[in-house]
Amino acid sequence: MGLVGRRRGVPGGAVVFATAVALLQIVFLVHPTSAQQSNGAPRVVPAEGYCSMYGICANRSDGKVLNCVNATKAVKPDTLFSTRIQSLCPTITGDVCCTVDQFDTLHQQVQQAVPFLVGCPACLRNFLNLFCEMSCSPNQSLFINVTSAKQVDNITTVDGIDYYITSNYGEELYNSCKEVKFGTLNTRAMDFLGGGAKTYKEWFAFLGRQANPNEPGSPYLITYRPDLSDSSGVKPLNTTVYSCGDPSLGCSCGDCPSSSVCMGSLLPQSKTETSCSVKMGSLKAECLDFSLVVVYIVFLCAILLWGLLYRTRGRTGFPSQTKPPKNADDKSNNNGNVPENSAQVPKAASSSIVQTYMSTFFRRHGVFVTRHPLLVLCASLLVPILLCIGLIRFKVETRPEKLWVSPGSQTAYEKQYFDSHLAPFYRIEQLVLATSASDQLEAPTIVNDNNFKLLFQIQKKIDDLRANYSGSTVSLADICLKPLSTDCATQSVLQYFQLDPKKHDDLGIDHAKFCFEHYSSEETCLSTFQSPIDPSTILGGFPGSNFTEASAFVITYPVNNKVETTGQENAKAMAWERAYINLVKEEILPMVLAQNLTLSFSSESSIKDELNRESTADAITIVISYIVMFAYISFTLGDRPSRLWALFVSSKVLLGLSGVVLVMLSVLGSMGFFSAVGVKSTLIIMEVIPFLVLAVGVDNMCILVHAVKRQPDGIVLEERISNALVEVGPSITLASLAEVLAFSVSAINPMPATRAFSMFAAMAVLLDFVLQVTAFVALIVYDFRRAEDGRIDCVPCARLKSSTVAGDNGGHQRLHFVARYMKDVHGPILGYRPVKFIVIAVFVGLAFASIAMSTRLQPGLEQKIVLPRDSYLQGYFDDLEKYMKVGPPLYFVVKNFNYSSASENTNQICSINQCNSNSLLNEIARQSLSPETSYIAKPAASWLDDFLIWMSPEAFGCCRKFVNGNYCPPDDQPPCCQLDQDSGSCSSNGACNNCTTCFLHSDLHNGRPSTTQFREKLPWFLDALPSSDCSKGGKGAYSTSLDHSGYENGIIQASAFRTYHTPLNKQTDYVNSLRAARDFSSQMSKDLQMEIFPYSVFHIFFEQYLSVWKTAIMNICVCLGAVFVVCFVVTSSLWASAIILIVLAMIVLDLMVCLSLSCPICTTTSDYMYFQIHSN
Predict the structure, then answer these.
(1) Which of 329, 374, 683, 1031 is buried most deeply by CB count within 10 Å?
(2) 304 located within any domain
(3) 792: β partners
């Protein structure tokens, strides 16, 4: 996230043009301001028609020109010179106080500021007037006083001036420019032309500072004085200042939000949700909570009234419909082995045709299995074994976008469109180096020399890192993002020293602190890839804007990303990332800990690798759980003989082991079947379904074995098996069929992971049920025959003496403790009417409370929950939440932008003058004014605005052409200047003296290019390198902001405008920001009749949460409905089916509350899983 700001539209263009910015602000100041107080400067008496300085007398050692101290009378220019002055300075008429050379210098310098301000004509005009008046006004002496002069080659030159202005003039000038955007870097032009000034005094102080030799800035000091201390005849400058809302020089709403036509967004304001509440005295309750309490009280009163009426009827002689519970001595004809309630089940279902048929089927099935156990066992095992062959094609899907986003989802389409038409979002490798707090003290600042030196050591290790890929080595330079195809766009505080430790040694820590405040305006603070580095993206843990108190360094390495089709496109980057993680763990982390600092780190492939590691570790957990369940089954299924030796016969270890194997076969068979048909498995399937099927399988196995053991001993095994299946077979079938059907209908969910989970689970439960009523019953037959023969469990070849076994088999087995408790205690207690009332009241109350609390569930899936607890990413996510001060980038993508003259699309999108007040970019700027609801932090960077400005005749240093019509670069770029390889400076060589602007005002229609002009100049703009003379070049800055393939027909298929989200620290922030961006795009698409959609790298992972409640409720209702239908069909009892439905619904509600107490509502998968378990 740290380099979120430097992606599309920033690294390249912003880079160089930002340099231009810094240069231009200072160069154009050459005329107007600067100087140190020096020895005597002749005092000029203020008078109309007189100058304070006139002509150029000398040059500084760095080549900057110096004006002459000359109190001469203003000079009348010739007609040509007067016309030229009028073209730039329309307020200057008649005589002037500047020579042709001075005017040419002025013209050359201001051209660097024009691209920043031309989008707001009022600001540009006011800004130019400030320097036109200072340079050429005929009344210069009235408001300019030379306060310092120095001798250069025996000539007196200006070294410092006072520039008198009125406070009102300064305030209005500042107000007209303070909101003008600098779109390429999503910031204000004032950050570059005014050093981020917050008042006009700060702005003028910035403009008037004197630059040191070989540094950009004014060669002399200019002191702006808004107040007069004497009455010496000085008349402060107070010329007309145009408001940015002036209709004749109107600025866009993004540059002038205070304009009357821009007040308030034309979009409907996002409504803040106001919760309904009821207040009773000092108590305040939500309307839903209050309603549930009222309904619950009414329900209790109804139950009490019914109980009283029922009791009254009983006293008046009406027969009671409920008999008191029978005591424990009431036995059935099975000698006390079958509880009375078990004998009543068949009676309740005796009228059901389905259940009668099922009983008949299971009786015959039991007889057949008992007579042919080997045949049944082999035939039943053959099916899952054959299905397991499909595991040859077993594959695991680990790509998040393939797991949680359906192929037809909106975000999946938007991501595919963005990646294919523009470029995939870059890969992020990140380090967070921080100080740690101790003894309740705040963490100390990390900004000191020792930590910088440590950071340089870390940087060197990463630069020297080489990874092996297919026999070749890969370094960071091979894969990193290079906006201008030269240097990596590394985001680090070391960029203030251009990653050079020698510069750090020379300049010291104070230079970094200086750059924290002047990163956008100082050339010495620019990065190696020539872009300003915002300190908020490379520092963390600082209060407000006090960067020097930062407690963390955030270092980000952006790496090129590619669209994956075969899975090998990013293999080289992934190889380097794994080597990078190993380097950090083995070498860098010990270095950091030795300095009493903390370090967290991450790579683009870290999450995937850590999830794979967790799945491997979970395999051990699964094995252990199966062993534990095997021991539990063996203990539960076995008898408790009175003699120790008989335990070897009565135990069921081999039977329990066989049952666990059957469960494993059902899981593997399910995986094999779906693998054979091409469905990929997921980590959830591998980690959850084995436990799910094991739980269901163990339950059914216990039921079957105990049902057989409850049968009278006097009957043959064949009858015991058939009677047991008749007794429990329908209930097992009902439960299993309900589970299979519930999972099957859950597969309608479009989320791939949930759909795959439901399909695998349904098949596994179905196979488990089939194996239980076939193979496991056959195994029961073999086990009981073994026990009857006195053979030892697990060693059936050995046999105990018949006397030992027979002695223990005398008499009937007593009921287990739990069974006795249920029969003798739990059941009778629940039979009392007051107890029934209390139980119903308590659980209905819990259900109502669950309804109220379920509304407080928050959507989202915390990343830390799904990762191993010992993962290095746990600390990384903690640090991101703690230190990051910037949000992820947000792109608004316009499809099929029609730039032809006949279309209004251009004015519907742009945000400079003459653009529609409700244009897309103007509305984005308005939304950024309310970030708490829009989650938009800044106005958007716009290639369209910069392109229109670049083409404008006012930006005379940008779009230029040679006499032959070819593109002519700015004067500070080759071939217009000669580049000095040693100093890096470029001196003019006159090669471009004949270059002219691409267009005159008359060539444009209302300031807009024609279709042909747009089509011809767009490639020039995208290939233009930003520099001091023209900061609006699009190379690097906008290389991937539009799809210009096939643009010749007047349509640009995809065009992206970048802004930023506010910092998103919680899962709800991500969900709400996506919802807000979608709502905004939808409304803009409707208003502008254009197709617009938002895109951010995280959108694809959070789309499901926009409708998670709707999806969850729909699927839970469908599952409950499926269970109800199965129950009704099997039992033919509407009342019993309704009771089951109500109980299951209450279980789901209680489960949701349990989830809310531990974690957010992750996905409906968890609901489905637990619902299936409890539905049994």
Answers:
(1) 1031
(2) no
(3) 795
